[in-house]
Amino acid sequence: MPREQRFQHILRTLSRRDFVPVRELAERLEVSPMTVRRDLAVLEEQGYLLRTHGGAMKGQAVESLFSFNRRLQRAGEQKRAIGRAAAGFVEDGEILFVDCGTTPFSLAAHLRRRKGLRVITTSLPVVAELLHSPGVRVSLIGGEVVGERQAVYGAAAERAILEYHADKAFIGVDGLSLAGGLSSYDEQEAGVTRRMAENAGRVFLLCDSSKIERDSYVRFAPLSLFQVLITDGGLPRAVRERYRRRGIRIVTS
To answer: 3-66 belongs to which CATH class?
Structure first.
């Protein structure tokens, strides 16, 4: 099993339990205890768990990583401001891809009064937010539902996206850096995000400043995947200038 998949399994296990033994992880992952200990060391360094004798304890970041509601509360004001700014780029009558994740979700509340809008999404909260908006038609992409992220992932979802073309895509990431490009905690989520971007006329990346110049587990696309970065005012000017020199338009909410 690739390292990124092992990380996902470990973190998902700890999202449900307070402690997991090395021996159990080694059996489930079909690797040696030494490999598990190395994985735990990496995850501890990133703040996701605490290593103990014989296993690992849940770190505070694990709960916020896998719980949509908890993640929504993190940098809540910044995300709402990013959503408002993103809505300024939406015209009535357009077809939109809206990615899963809490920052793209912040856009949905500002679309409820639009007219003739078509929103295609993998996010269950986005569907719920727009379900009763008379001027908005919502399509939920089919695939495997992942409860913690409240989204649809998987190969079926990626194939379904290929049947659509959107005027604009509003996507999110778990990490963004000049060296590493776009990155995600989850390979399947990354695949869906990439497909949305590849099948849209224009791509907007919605990303709060805490995720910028930080790499997550899976690097899945270069900076050329998007044209506009919408972020909050916490991004230092020097960092903004480096991104602008790479041809990226930055909008500060």
So the answer is: mainly alpha
